[in-house]
Amino acid sequence: MPQKNVSAFALYQQMKNTEVTPPEKDLTKEGGDNDIDAQKKGNKQTSTVDKQEDGAVKSVAENKNKKKRKSVAATKQEKKTVVAPKKRQADEAKTEEANSDAKKQKPAEEDKSCKENGATEQPKLAVSNTNATTKEKSKKKKKVAPMKQNLPKFPSFPQLTGDSVSDGKAAFQWLINPISHKTFFNKHWEKEVLLVKRDPSTFINSLFSMKEFNEILKSGKMEYSVNLDITSYEDGERVTHNPNGKAHPAVAWQYYQSGCSLRIKNPQSFSPSVLKLCSTLQEHFKSMVGANIYLTPPGTQGFAPHYDDIEAFVLQLEGKKEWKVYRPRNADEVLPKFSSNNFTQEEIGKEILTTTLEAGDILYFPRGFIHQAKSLPDVHSLHITISTYQCNTWHDVMKELLNTALEKAVSTDVEFRRGVPLNFLDQYGTQYSDEDHASSAGRVSIANKMADLFNRLRQHADLDIAADQRAVSFLHDSLPPVLSKDEQSRMVQGVDVFVPPKKSTQQPTIKAVEVQLDTKVKLVRKNSIRVVVDTEGEAEEDCVRVYYNLENPTVYHAEGKKYILVEMSSIGGVDYLLENYPNYVQVDDFPLENDTLKLVLAHQLFEHGMIMSEKKLKTSTLPLADN
């Protein structure tokens, strides 16, 4: 039975003073995820202030009330329920107790569903095969939840070591635990669904909570469509209810109260823990890692069935949610380059997996796999979808390769600069593609010429340049590294500046760091820089570009690509740091011609946050010029 609407102000006041908890019952429905696209859209900031939010909320509620009018008898029954809450609670307790007994007498049906629907062997970890003795004990103590002895425990997040390569792999292993890295990439990556059930009693949610969701809303920094979506899926219709302008908690929670799902499109811009996870994982994938947060009222669904163009990892954080996953409908939809439109239930076929995710469970599905999800009737759902590998295919590499090959070919091979024959338009085109023209001498001659040009083009294809261009795109897309306090203390961020009060007679000072020849340094992150020979004709003579992401904003493409120019004679020092990562090396060991070049390069990299010292650097206090 839908819950009556509560005033937005009353709900908001309650959430200001207490930890946020979802309402017991709600109205709409929720489902799938497309995170990197949502992140990209969510990171483009606007400043419009909405003045029509309350009317929009009322419109949603009115539409839902029209669809769900109650009979007079049902209304009377509802009033009786309100009048006698204690009796209703007692009845519900009895029903819940009976259901609990019935469940304990059945085998684990979820695992059976996985087997019958073609799920991989890993979901077998979800089976809770308690023995007869355990079952009998559970019956005697009905108030105690059944023990899930065969489920693996949820692991603690690994302690980061400062080696971004091993840290990235360890973070990914944490995500899919207890499935091994090798097993995942051999059997599941871009191939099959993976479901890992874990003991929810061992899950400690330190990643993102409903309380943090509310705190972000209260910050006043979120805007509809930019950072937050309000959606519903009911009677086969997917609707986005976004007002214009800023998202205010009172209005957002009233939408939730009326049965709508709330989606944060770029939580890494607001949540330090989500930023840390995504930033660490991108070192492993060497591809942008994005995230979305989905909050769904009980018994509702917010998205229609669809597939995405990303590899998706769904981690349940709170509550429960039932997921249905379907194979791609045909070969053309396997590993698609673009996300689908919304499907009807009749278009998607039979599911290969139906499962209910609880806190700590993980579900992976490749791009192209259709999916939809709905929260259970008695509990809300909060989950995060971590996504990666959007536009990171051989097609994307080939685009870079062919574009650069053509530019190189036209500048060095005269055959690419010759004009097409006068009869080209008389030989090729739709109107000349029929059988009568297919074998004409003119078409054959032109076809032979094109074959020769393709052969010549292969000689100009430079995969190194294409790889550099892909790497630069990744650095521009990616999040900045999350630095520990210890790391910052050994970087340029740790340099102190003292600015005295206005009435003070003290002079402003700076603690200047002294990077010396015997200073040991290393790169901050292995995959946070890229040495690229200038291909755009803008670099100074005898210089190369070193691109980096260490100063990137957490907002997607809010700023341009970042790079510094390094003299060609000094680039050997950068290569030396890359080759020796994650080890520290002395500046004096840089393979450069003289000490001056070594110190100049070390200071240049240090000032842009690309290297850190093994120990805190010695400082000397210098006065700042009084402006």
Present the secondary structure layout.
Layout: H1 8-17, H2 35-42, H3 53-67, H4 72-83, H5 85-104, H6 109-116, H7 132-140, H8 164-176, H9 181-187, E1 194-196, H10 210-218, E2 228-234, E3 237-240, H11 249-257, E4 261-264, H12 272-285, E5 289-296, E6 311-319, E7 321-326, E8 353-357, E9 362-365, E10 370-375, E11 381-388, H13 394-412, H14 424-427, H15 435-438, H16 441-460, H17 463-477, H18 485-489, E12 497-498, E13 509-513, E14 520-523, E15 529-532, E16 543-548, E17 563-567, H19 571-580, E18 585-586, H20 595-607, E19 611-613, E20 619-623
Antiparallel strand pairs: 1-9, 2-3, 2-4, 4-5, 5-11, 6-9, 6-11, 7-8, 7-10, 12-13, 13-20, 14-18, 14-19, 15-16, 16-17
